[in-house]
């Protein structure tokens, strides 16, 4: 009597494992992508807060607003230009100060398209 023993998995076993993995991924991926978006929004809000604070300190020290964001880095109010995590660049929409206060940047906004979890467009943060 010849006995054959094959080691390995059958096609059915592999398909069951793949189906289970697919089910687990379909349950986990929406939470993962939502948490990534929440993290980006948190970083954006913090970068805006820190940069606005640096602009305010610059104005308090110098009596005028900065001409460019690079001036904040050059004068060591910031270590580096902050990155907009949603637009994935350092290009910000700048808001000019009122007439007579000097400088070109009194505030900055994100250029990222879309609306945040709070219902406000990123450009209004």
Helix content: 40-55%
Unreliable parts: none
Instruction: Report the C-alpha radius of gyration, rounded.
Output: 26 Å
Mean pLDDT: 92
Number of E strands: 2
Tell me about the biggest sheet?
2 strands, antiparallel
Task: Please state how the strands of the largest beta sheet are arranged side by side.
Answer: 1-2
Q: Which descriptor suits the 3D outline?
A: rod-shaped
Count of helical segments?
A: 2
Structure report:
- With 125 residues, the protein is mainly alpha-helical.
- It has one domain (12-124).
- The chain has 2 helices and 2 strands, in the order H-H-E-E.
- The chain has a two-stranded antiparallel ribbon with strand order 1-2.
List the helices and strands and how they pair.
Elements: H1 11-62, H2 69-74, E1 93-95, E2 107-109
Antiparallel strand pairs: 1-2
Keywords:
125 residues; mainly alpha; 2 helices; 46% helix
Provide a quick synopsis of the model:
This protein is mostly helical and 125 residues long. It is 46% helix and 5% strand.
